[in-house]
């Protein structure tokens, strides 16, 4: 399995990161994508990736922090992306639930990340919350300027955004939310996403899946995300693991140099 979204830097795993990674490897996780949430954390995230043969990372700024990096240049992101360990741009996106950054700053940051994804050929990891219509509009607008590869990460949005993004060649990642009893709407949307466009993630340390909900999430629990997707799609879990791993390797082609 490929855990395509892990938040390994900072306090949550500071005391036992090696044990966490060992448990994940024992559970069948063979690759990890460590996410950069703030560009001033990039070196720390990159260091984790460079210290492990099976970990890669992204470069970018989460929409919550867009206000703190208005002066970040596309050139700086492109330079970071030139490192062999950097296989994706982001995560970026729009989050109007908390409003930690203004809409103006979030949109400007999102467009900058999409430009970098287009220039580098790397997928752009998209976080969307309470912003489906604007996100879909921006993706379609930007795609007219030149193709890029969107990834709707930890997807909990509506069917319309999912389908509009899929029409642009997007991939969709599912997390432990898929297993939550309350997530019937999410399951309904994911049921209509083709299997060849779905990948798995834990988004650890957040969103631990059933049956470990309430604990600190960790990559070893990716198994339960695979189980939830298998149950939804009516497929054996091993088949889900195979398909989603192939999808992830196709999406993050820099891992293999293909």
UniProtKB/TrEMBL annotation:
SUPFAM superfamilies: Metallo-dependent hydrolases
Keywords: Hydrolase, Metal-binding
A Pfam family reported for this protein in Swiss-Prot or TrEMBL: TatD_DNase
PROSITE patterns xref list: TATD_2, TATD_3
Residue ranges the record marks as coiled coil: none
GO molecular function (one): hydrolase activity, acting on ester bonds
Positions of a divalent metal cation 1 binding: 5, 91, 203
Binding of a divalent metal cation 2, residues: 127, 153
GO CC annotations on file: cytosol
Domain of life: Bacteria
Stated family: Belongs to the metallo-dependent hydrolases superfamily. TatD-type hydrolase family.
Protein known as: TatD family hydrolase
